[in-house]
Amino acid sequence: MGIIERKERDKQEMRLKILETAQQIFIEEGFEKASIRAIADRIEYSPATIYLYFKDKNELFFSVHEMGFEKLILEMTIAIEGITDPIEELRARGFAYMKFAFQNPEMYDLMFIQNAPMESIKESSVWTCGHQCFELLCQTIQKCIDQNYIRFDDIYIASMSIWSFMHGLVSLKIRNRFQKFGEAHVNELMKSSVEQMIAIISK
Amino acid sequence: MGIIERKERDKQEMRLKILETAQQIFIEEGFEKASIRAIADRIEYSPATIYLYFKDKNELFFSVHEMGFEKLILEMTIAIEGITDPIEELRARGFAYMKFAFQNPEMYDLMFIQNAPMESIKESSVWTCGHQCFELLCQTIQKCIDQNYIRFDDIYIASMSIWSFMHGLVSLKIRNRFQKFGEAHVNELMKSSVEQMIAIISK
DNA sequence: TTGTTCAACTAAACAGTGTTCAGTAAATTT
DNA sequence: AAATTTACTGAACACTGTTTAGTTGAACAA
């Protein structure tokens, strides 16, 4: 009896369709404009239908942000292929992170700035994809500490610090707090900032 | 003829009343809950009245965020009183910044994370209060570089980097991305992170 | 004092949001 | 063929920011 299997497939397909449409709209027009009604309109279903596949908007965008993490984790993995020096690995991961943010600003915003995805795992649940991504950084930092290439001794303090530094740069840019530096130069300044920071924390 | 002066005073008073009520509601209940209607309700005027004093919600919250900057700038000024060593000054300013964020999370959010205040100065206008605050950091960094106490040579790269680091820490906390570390330990970890960073960039 | 002007204010509406629920219609099972 | 289950939706609810036409009372000029 393949009917229940086909139904299950249909259900997953529909879920994916909603997810991809949500992602598409919000990448093109931002989180604000990605309303349930706009998504429903584009897939030609009623808004109420979306609630048969997702508990609420937060849960829907939690799933979208998970797709973002899949991409970021992939890119941060590819970035270090063939690199042996731990500091070079750290640089590669840092620039992969920044590149992702530049190329997918709306997605970065959702993953690391917006409240929505975190609201959906408030209490009880866990931010698995976030931790997975953080783990990549920890692995690199671990190597740096082991080989005595970095001015940190604690992996978690180091990882927390470096992540915060990178996120600070990127999120101040995304949320327009670097207005002062001008759209034209800010990206170059940010890259210099990362480069200098790596030089300073290396030993 | 003091009538037009009294009217001007009344107008300013009303403006301030709206501003303070907006601040109050949003500090207590967050940005989302601080709706025009909620503010209007509390001051016992109709929502439309608010639009006689502010162009839109963005402009209203731009003014609220300016009050936040007045406070932050004051605290970051007081914090360094009596300190002569530039690195100690940097530490004091860093911890004053972090303390402000811990004690006024909603206001910090508005000042450095929310889009609203920046939307109201999009194009043409300038983020004066933000630049003023950044200038304080630059002054301290300048001293550090002049006295050769810090591993940076460029003031702007240094200031940008240190601000980004601090903002990254604070904003990841505020937007719940440090879930992993647990509510109980995260504040201590953040302080250690700042302490270590200062140790590393000092020379 | 009267009539007029002007400013402050608001009720009501518009267009949008997330979300819920009763009801329909078709597919599946008995 | 009848009963049940499933997928879906129209319409409503309670909100949001914002605009506009209209009211009311104070200030001014005759």
Automatic annotation (TrEMBL), chains A, B:
Q: Does the keyword NAD apply?
A: no
Q: What InterPro entries does the record tag this protein with?
A: Homeodomain-like_sf, HTH-type_TetR-like_transc_reg, HTH_TetR, MT1864/Rv1816-like_C, Tet_transcr_reg_TetR-rel_C_sf
DNA bind region: 35-54
The record's SUPFAM superfamilies line, in alphabetical order, gives: Homeodomain-like, Tetracyclin repressor-like, C-terminal domain
Which Pfam family, any one of them, does this sequence belong to?
A: TetR_N
Spell out where the chain crosses the membrane.
Answer: none
Q: Which UniProt keywords apply?
A: DNA-binding, Transcription, Transcription regulation
Instruction: Establish whether keyword Iron-sulfur is in the entry.
Output: no
Q: Which ranges carry the HTH tetR-type domain? A: 12-72
Q: Which GO terms describe its molecular function?
A: DNA binding
Give the matching Gene3D superfamilies. Tetracycline Repressor, domain 2
Provide the protein name. TetR family transcriptional regulator
Q: Which organism is it from?
A: Arcicella aurantiaca
Q: What is the lineage of its organism?
A: Bacteria, Pseudomonadati, Bacteroidota, Cytophagia, Cytophagales
